[in-house]
Amino acid sequence: MSNPTNKKALELLFERPLEPIFTARDDGKAVFDIPDSFYSEQYSDVKEDIQSRFTEDVDIKIPLRELTKKPDLTFTHPVGKRKQFSLFNSLHRSIAARLIDILMSAEDEDLFIATCAYVKDRVNPFLFQYCYAVAVQHRKDTKNFEIKPIAEMFPQNFVEPAVFKDARAEGELVRNTGDRRHIDIPRNYTASDREEEQRMSYFREDIGVNSHHWHWHLVYPGYGADEIVKKDRRGELFYYMHHQIIARYNVERFCNGLAKIKILNNIREPITEGYFPKIMSSLNNRTYPGRSAFTKLHDIDREDAKLEIADLERWANRVIQAIDQGFVTDNKGNNIALDPKKGIDLLGDIIESTQLSVNPQFYGSLHNEGHNAISCCHDPDSRFLEDFGVMGDVTTAMRDPIFYRWHGYIDSIFNRHKELLSPYEDADLAFQGIHVSKFEVRIQTASQKASANTLLTYMEKSDVDLAAGLDFGPKGNIYATFTHLQHAPFEYAINVNNADNVPKRGTCRLFICPKSDERGTLLTLNEQRLLAIELDRFTVNLVPGTNNIRQSSNSSSVTIPYERSFRKLGEKYQPTDERQLAEFRFCGCGWPEHLLLPKGRPEGMAFDLFVMISDYTGDEVQQTKDQPSVCGDSSSFCGLKDKLYPDNRSMGYPFDRRLPEKTLVELTDKFPNMSMIDVVIRYNDVIVDRKA
After folding, report:
1. What angle do CA 16, 21, 23 make, to 5 degrees?
2. Which fold has domain 4-145?
3. 15 phi and psi, to 5 degrees?
4. CA distances (Å), origin 275, targets 122, 197, 355
5. Model pTM?
6. Domain 261-420 carries which CATH code?
7. Which stretch of DSSP H or E encloses residue 341?
8. Interval 144-188: pLDDT, tens
9. SS3 for 270?
10. Lowest-confidence region among 58-62, 354-358, 522-526, 589-593
């Protein structure tokens, strides 16, 4: 466990990422006392002036150890300090993996902090923050330290640029932080309502959604030491997390009167959707490049990226052929079966692709290089010296409509494998002696009892603190107000009868499925299967007789609460209770709670709410480590820290494979351990201020 000084140092290394290591942090109250050798060449001649300027009037000076052997960082030079850093770029990934190894190999926490401080001013800031965060997340001596939300480190990646001018002015002119007004982030600033895709901007440009995507890739890096990359069912988790994003996005499209996405399965056709993000890179003060409608993809010939569009087609064909044959071939010529248990995990590592791919030379890097091809389509040979677009950055990719078309195509390849598996049989789905006798859901209200099976969504205004990311800016908190979808909290009421005379354990699985598409056409069960949104998964103990199960939406295994998506750092903001503190720490990974439910419609939109109690003997995972689970409330998308994935079934079960009946009603009628009810989600078109 870190001592107080080291905890402070770890916290300060996340602040003001573009400022040199020697500047004051924490509202000017703390500074690093660095050895002379840590000053970069740019500042070495004026270090005495710097020391006297920044070390005066501070409350805390944190001394850093001298490094007897300083790391050689010349390998990082291809990612220049003013260039954009991309996890989808193979060169950038390999550089990041080497830098992570350096940070991970520091012998103790003091040496780790000193190494980070030395490295920080000598490499690309985005590269450093990513590698530093991965190392903090995975080192044994720092793994319980909370990672600062990416939106507060690099707010330029999430917020319309005009906000920063107002924020800096407010910070300079109003010295008392309590008197500063909250700067409003405008809604719908990337396009007008003439662009129908703009109806989805509240989802695509949501700060919590994009923070989740960044943090997931932070927790599950694709390259580096095995202890960082080789995690339980990593490839399957890549598939399932992105599959759920696509399902949610398509259902949101139905809510807004739009058809399902047209998957990008023909990369020779022009991309019909244009996108102009209107956000800036803090590294070079340039806006992320836009993409005009009907742009075509071209071969990429840039200094740090080479790609033929034909490569993407070859890799896709090879993966599809492997799926159709039922096996993949590793780099030694061995055939490995794509069985129902491990097949999806193998495919996830191959398609993404990561260093766990069994044959990267043959199957290539379909997902990553697809991102690169799209992100560079506006300037494929760098003749105009433009950086990549938002699709090249995990913090911004989900803003672009094309992200969902590309991942829709990736998901269709995974589903091709799932469709070739035999349907679930009765024995896979039944739970002998267990009967769901009653099932309903109600909004949780303090006053009157709400009507059953009607859920409510609306827009809410919340705050994010920009101060930590305003390099060379005013001290103190500077808040921006953003508008996002929210739902009224609700509770599931499930009565389960155990007809046997012995206690049993089960897993309660909750999904919501749209009944119809945007035109009102009813969906088949197989269509619903691909659009099923996981809402929760939790273990239940069933005594003989009737069991009354109550579960709040706030306890979802999919989401993390608002406070963890947009939390403040520092001990004064942390829980004091040990159990709550453990839950607070790992991590910012998880779907944002405010987007647990689809938006619905003002007149109400009909859904099927599905519950299943599965037999725990088929669900149970024997964990190899006994320590308590840390922040397991978002385990569906993020797993458990340093543990096996907590469900032995396939991710998405029972909707991950074809089912033996034609409709959801027939399915739930056949299996008494399942139930389904009609629910309505009603969208109230108002904006409510978030309660403190």
Report:
1. 75
2. Hemocyanin, N-terminal domain (1.20.1370)
3. -85, 145
4. 34, 10, 32
5. 0.89
6. 1.10.1280.10
7. none
8. 787 777 777 777 777 777 776 666 676 666 766 666 667 777 787
9. coil
10. 58-62
